Model the fold of this input.
Amino acid sequence: MAIATGADDLVLPFQIEASGLRGRLVRFGPLLDDILGRHAYPEPVAHLLAETVVLTALLASALKYEGVFTLQAKGDGPVRLVVADVTSDGTVRANAMFDESRVSGTATTVPALLGKGHLAFTVDQGSDTERYQGIVDLSGETLWECAQHYFRQSEQLQAGLRSAVRHGEGGWRGGGIMLQRLPDPEKQVPTDREDDWRRAMVLLGSATDDELTQPALSGEALLYRLYNEDGVRVFPAQPMRFSCRCSRERVASMLRSMPRDEIESLAVDGRVEVACEFCNTRYDFDRDQLAALYAA
Done:
């Protein structure tokens, strides 16, 4: 297998030839900086949100859908909510809501930041289709461990996960790997197949945080390092990019749906300003623009 040079902000599909197991590798660099740089997040909150972005991309890449895949974690800790979504055309955005007075120290674990709560996966393919949602309690030190707990309980999809994020001189970096296998409908898995799965999971667990996030080590090189003895085939990478779906028209529609006196009570010097929670873009409406909005 040819070894390519390093690349960021992508999903790399692959297959382990000896066992037929399929997987995805995610590697993020500038995309994380773009998302996290739009808000003044404390370091632990930024770390948790970066982890959320990596995990969301991994999970979304394992599904076939046309629309939006959303991952959100809610808890009773200092961080009330982290949410990220990935569209089927590869755009990513994310946001965190937190109580800054309760965020202290440098702990980045799920129990320290989110406390008790749940992790929810949602696939929305539009108003004409039924939304799919999976929910699991927050049970683990990291979000990928919480997601792993969900898959251990699932009869529809078996998966193994490993991810890492770090913040250093070169900015934010994140990476992760997800392995999948389809369950045996007769629940009689041949011993050799079970051994293949266990071996692949052991090798996945051997990947270090540095290997998952190291810019000098390409995704192809990491997969070769882990699975070369079993043969690994890498498929074309799927690029990912930051993009927010907010717009002035959407904000105007939201304002129009609210009582006019309630909106006008929020005005400062006759102007109402609305900031997008995801990208922090600010939309400003003066008295004349508000009047025109409600007249429409």
The chain has two domains: 10-242, 248-294.
